[in-house]
């Protein structure tokens, strides 16, 4: 009898939970919906012939706790506008609370002024989301942690580490975690500690945007399984050059592990022709057709992680247990 009361309480608990989404990552949202046992909200998000985004909410959200799941990925500006208009529509429909769930935070790499008179686009996007009516943010592996401070609303910053680590533990135990640049050393050190592995760093110099030249490897990689760790794989050039340098230094095998598979341009071809045996990514961004056909790209799902975070936020419970 107590068990039945608990189940009834859980059903009532989720009666005010609603999940909506645009067109950026429908498969991930479907998995989250299945994990929570909550159907995706009835809405229509379409584009008019002139390129304008149109949103229609086809069910009542008055007084509801709404989660809008939308990755700001390619096509970046369309997906960003879908997110903003969805939030505005839900706010005007009297939703009690709106959480923007951003598996991938687009414009996150433009987080500071690198040249005179340059914008800080990551801050602008934060302002737009807040102004649209979001009450809080849930996101995964921000490119720069300080982006959390760009928001004047609560931000829950999750890491894909639990999902990635679970997979990496299946590899050869005799491995070294490699940071492709100095900026990723903290992330690589945390992974190395949890895997009881050694750490290496690649010293490189960037001659032009999206082009990097490997200069030196700091640490021992000879005879080890090298795992290149980064938050984003975009053109693939950095990882490919790093993998070549690791192979030349005697690494037995080379893997790459990245949370967000942007994979723009000829990235799939670049990675396929490199010494990287497998590129491990998550489904924060849906793979394009070419990447889906590539047998050397392994996709892990973060749906369970996001579903648990959504559940905890909805119940006003702690999310910190999911921070790794």
First-residue to last-residue Cα separation? 37 Å
Q: Number of DSSP helices?
A: 10
Relative helix content: 25-40%
Kindly estimate the percentage of residues that lie in beta strands according to DSSP.
Answer: 25-35%
Largest beta sheet: what is the strand line-up? 10-9-8-11-12-13-14
Oligomer: single chain
Q: How are helices and strands ordered from N to C?
A: HEHEEEHEHEEHEHEEEHEHEHEH
Total strand segments: 14
The assigned structural class equals: alpha/beta
- The outline comes out as globular
Give the rounded overall mean pLDDT: 92
Tell me the Rg in angstroms.
21 Å
Major sheet details: 7 strands, mixed
Low-pLDDT runs of 5+ residues are 1-5
Describe the secondary-structure layout.
Blueprint: H1 2-13, E1 17-21, H2 26-36, E2 43-47, E3 53-57, E4 65-69, H3 76-92, E5 97-102, H4 121-132, E6 136-140, E7 155-158, H5 161-168, E8 175-179, H6 185-195, E9 198-208, E10 211-218, E11 225-233, H7 237-248, E12 253-261, H8 267-272, E13 278-282, H9 289-293, E14 297-300, H10 303-314
Parallel strand pairs: 1-4, 4-5, 5-6, 6-7, 8-9, 8-11, 11-12, 12-13, 13-14
Antiparallel strand pairs: 2-3, 9-10
Helix pairs in contact: 2-10
